[in-house]
Amino acid sequence: MERRTALKSLAISIWGIMLLPGCGTGLEENALPGVKLLPLNALQKANLQSLVDTLIPKTDTLGAVELEVHGFVDRILANCHELEVQNKFIQGLSKLESKSQMMFKTSYNALEKPERELVLIGLDNAELESDKEFFDLAKELTVLGYTTSEYFLTNFTNYQMVPGGYDGCVAVPNTPFKI
Length: 179
Prior knowledge:
Elements: H1 3-19, H2 42-55, H3 69-80, H4 83-104, H5 113-124, H6 129-147, H7 150-156
Helix pairs in contact: 2-5, 3-6, 4-5, 4-6
């Protein structure tokens, strides 16, 4: 190959890589193609994060926010649940905010942990079935996201990616196995 051809190919490759739209940094909120997110506003996203943090807070172990369980809940609802369930969940986040405003005159994500717990207890003991369904779904998805995280599986369970392992230095018997 000639030097001129090599330099031309290198220049075209570099410009092509820089101009391709799919070669982002991966920092976009919805970087994976085909993965949807719920249509939440900034307040609802902050309330979802606070809700997840209230259910599984950080102690001597990592909490749900540190493991980004709120993103898991968002993606699971948007991609795996019906539109009706998604809308009910978004309405539940709005009810969470209104209940917080009614009880403490401030936004749910601005409350301290004991006050957030009181709001959630109010939703859990609510007479309306929709409020209880919202709380139950949020709790279920938060626990699911936490207990299926790599951190939880490797630190709190006896998880092995390949049970039994692989031992490649085993002598092969001369006689075949009889079944």
